[in-house]
Structure formats: structure tokens, C-alpha cells
Write a structure and sequence with these properties.
Layout: H1 4-13, H2 15-49, E1 55-58, H3 63-70, H4 83-91, E2 95-107, E3 110-115, H5 117-123, E4 130-131, E5 139-142, E6 153-158, E7 170-180, E8 192-195, H6 196-202, E9 231-236, H7 239-248, E10 255-257, H8 259-302, H9 304-312, H10 317-358, H11 368-384, H12 386-394, H13 397-404
Parallel strand pairs: 3-8, 5-7
Antiparallel strand pairs: 1-9, 1-10, 2-3, 2-6, 2-9, 4-7, 5-8, 6-7
Helix pairs in contact: 1-10, 2-8, 2-10, 2-11, 8-11, 9-13, 10-11, 10-12
Length: 405
């Protein structure tokens, strides 16, 4: 006997209740899927965001603060690296290039970063997405997501954030956008990059070159006119040089670290949060599945007469068992599959929110972990579905007929 017509009849007879049960399972599954997908997307995006920054040298202090300030361009203050250490870094022969970073200004809320052409070309993998690198103090390169276009002119505001939060102090110097970086997948996509000499000069600091050098751009800098910087991005010549430089500049006056070191600590925190959230989601899913089975068990009392009549007409017990098991599985599987899609959609929306707040571009995806979670819920439903199916399977025919007569 074909059990599917009977299963469809049961689904149609209690549409509202079945829909409610499907929605419950969908929400419980979607929560777990969204947690796993978002955590993986955040790890991938943060690793991509720091991929171009091999080694960071800064003043002693919190390397997390330096990373958030220098790589993720978050507002905040850090200690300045001593000019003498800056000179030592620039003079190192094992360095392919060393680019100082300078902050303090913004353009319509987007951060302004002062650095050298070497770092701009490094971020662009040697070729900008549009235009060219800056060649004098009045030129700028913008990130891929910046509203500024090549050829636009602008002035910088002191401080970080909208004009109303920075005191409205606008520097007199006018810049022209001459290039645009490729997509970085990080807050640098909204950055406005100008020569570090200009940002030093705007803040009444030594400009890195002697006055008679005029508008000299980039290294070599004049040691007598160097100033402290929040951090330096260093590109070592090779892996051995990277570890050697990190050890060399871990002193009382400086610290050196790989950004991946900071991410490991952040991942550990994320892992702890994910473990807790996954445990809560797992408990919720188990309770929901148990509640669904309980509801189905009550609902099957309504259909008890129908099955009793079918058995009296010759339907075997296995047919009754199969109908009930398939009915419960249809409800649970529908909710689980819908929850997989809901979780992906929720993770995508959360990624858009995180990107708007932090500038880190998240790309959620459905991977093996999410599919395994959905499959686990379906398998759990397979096991729990045996309970109501077995109850009617064992029910004596004469007792069932007496109950419904």
C-alpha cells in the first residue's frame, strides 16, 4: 500500500498546526546555521583584512589596540613609536620597505591615512584599480568604497568622524584624488590615503625631510626631521627576516608582531562565544524537536479512528507505522531545510550590518558544518519520529476500535 496519499491527507487536515511546527523547527535550525556561518565568515574576512600587513612595529602597549587602529582604522589613541626606533626600522637592510602610518584627520567621516607610495602599491599588488599613485603632497588615493572619484578635490577635517563630532576644523590644504585602490575587504576600502609628509605638516610636526628638500616624497627620510608614528608597516625580505625583525624590535621602547598573532587571540574569544551559542542553539533545537513530537502525539489521537478503520479493512501495522513516521519526518525535514535557508539569509543580513559598522567585508556561505547541523536535526527527528509511530503500531485493533466508537 502507498503511504504517501495518507501522509498528504494528514498534512492537509491540520495545515495551521503543521505550519506552526515547521516554523518552530525552521527558527531553531536557522539560529544554529546563522551562528556557524557568521563565525566562519568573520574569521575569513578578518584574515583577508590583515593579509597584506606582514609585520607591525609600534610603541609598547596593547597590540590589539594597535591592530584596531592601524589595520582596521578604528578611532582611538595609541602611544607613538619613538623617532629613534623609526630611524632604526627604516635603516634595516632586511626590510623590503617600511611605511609609517599617520592618522588624525577624516573626510566626511572616512579616515585619512598618511603613508608612503610603497604601501599604496603593495596594497594594490602593484597596480591600482583606477588612476595612479600620488606623486606630490597634494594628491591622494582612495579606497574602493570611497564616494570620492578620481579628479575630485577635497579638504580634510581634524579628528575622526562627521564634521559635527570633530569640531568642524577643516585644514586649508586641498587634495586631488588621482587613484583608487582595488577591493581590500577591510576598512581600507573607505580610507583616503595621502602622503605621510603632508599629514605631518598639517599637524605642525617635522615633515620627514629638511626644508631645503622642498616637497620631497617618501623615503629616504632625513633622520633629523622624523617624528613619532602610531605604527609602521614592514615588508620583510623573507620569512627568516620577518622573525628576526620581530625579535629585534621587541624591546622596552618598541613592540613588533604579526597581525595573525592578534587574530589568534580574537578567534579564541570567538570560538568560546560560538561554543556557548551553539550549545544554547543545540538545546533549543532539541527542545523544539521534543515539543514537535509531543504535539504530533496529541494530534495523532485525532487520526486514531482513521488508522483503526484502515487496519480493520486489512491494512498491516507496518503501513500505519510508515504513515506516521513519514508524516513526522515531513514536518521536521521541511522545517530543517527551511531553517538552513533562513540561517544563510540571517547570516547575510548580519554580514551587511557588520560591514556597515566596521568596514570588514563578510561573505557568508553554506558549508559542510551548516549542512551537517541540518542533517543532525533531521536524523534526530528520524529517531524521535519512531515514538508516536511505535505507539500506534503496538495499539491493539479491538482497543482502538472501542476508543473511537
Amino acid at each position: 500500500m502507498n503511504p504517501f496519499p495518507m501522509v498528504l491527507a494528514m498534512m492537509r487536515a491540520d495545515r495551521r498546526l503543521n505550519l506552526m511546527l515547521v516554523i518552530l523547527i525552521m527558527i531553531a535550525t536557522g539560529l544554529g546555521v546563522a551562528i556557524i556561518s557568521q563565525e566562519r565568515a568573520l574569521k575569513q574576512a578578518s584574515a583577508q583584512a590583515v593579509d597584506k600587513f606582514d609585520l607591525i612595529i609600534a610603541a609598547p602597549g596593547s597590540i590589539t589596540d594597535v591592530t584596531l587602529k592601524s589595520l582596521f582604522l578604528r578611532p582611538g589613541s595609541v602611544e607613538l613609536l619613538n623617532p629613534e626606533v623609526v630611524r632604526q626600522v627604516l635603516a634595516e637592510k632586511r626590510v623590503a620597505f617600511a611605511a609609517p602610518l599617520a592618522f588624525g584627520d577624516s573626510v566626511n567621516g572616512d579616515p585619512v591615512v598618511g603613508t608612503t607610495r610603497d604601501l599604496v602599491l603593495h596594497l594594490a599588488d602593484g597596480r591600482l584599480a583606477e588612476g595612479r599613485g600620488f606623486q606630490n603632497w597634494e594628491e591622494a588615493v582612495v579606497g574602493q568604497a570611497s564616494p570620492l572619484k578620481v579628479g575630485d578635490t577635497f579638504q580634510t577635517s581634524h579628528g575622526h568622524g562627521p564634521e559635527e563630532t570633530t569640531g568642524g576644523l577643516v585644514h586649508a590644504r586641498t587634495f586631488t584624488v588621482v587613484g583608487r585602490l582595488p577591493v581590500q575587504g577591510s576598512p581600507w576600502d573607505r580610507a583616503v590615503v595621502i602622503p605621510v609628509e603632508q599629514i605631518w605638516k598639517l599637524h605642525n610636526l617635522p615633515a620627514g625631510h629638511a626644508p631645503e628638500a622642498g616637497s620631497a616624497l617618501g623615503p629616504p627620510f632625513d633622520d633629523a626631521y622624523l617624528t613619532g608614528v602610531p605604527a609602521m608597516v614592514v615588508k620583510p625580505e623573507n620569512l627568516a627576516a620577518a622573525y628576526g625583525l620581530r625579535n629585534l624590535f621587541r624591546t622596552e621602547t618598541s613592540t613588533a608582531f604579526f597581525p595573525a598573532e592578534v587574530l589568534v587571540g580574537l578567534y579564541q574569544v570567538l570560538g568560546d562565544i560560538r561554543l556557548m551559542m551553539t550549545a544554547l542553539a543545540g538545546g533549543t533545537q532539541a527542545l523544539v524537536v521534543a515539543a514537535v513530537i509531543a504535539c504530533v502525539s496529541v494530534l495523532l489521537r485525532v487520526h486514531k479512528r482513521r488508522f483503526a478503520v484502515l487496519r480493520a479493512l486489512g491494512a498491516p501495522r507496518t503501513y500505519v507505522f510508515t504513515c506516521i513516521w513519514l508524516y513526522v519526518m515531513a514536518v521536521i525535514a521541511s522545517g530543517a531545510i527551511a531553517g538552513l535557508l533562513l540561517g544563510f539569509a540571517a547570516s547575510h543580513l548580519a554580514g551587511l550590518f557588520v560591514a556597515s559598522q566596521t568596514g570588514v567585508s563578510l561573505t557568508p556561505s553554506i558549508g559542510l558544518s551548516e549542512v551537517s547541523l541540518t542533517a543532525l536535526i533531521v536524523v534526530t527527528g528520524c529517531v524521535f519520529a519512531i515514538v508516536p509511530a511505535l505507539a500506534l503500531y503496538k495499539d491493539r485493533l479491538d482497543r482502538a476500535l472501542q476508543t473511537v466508537s
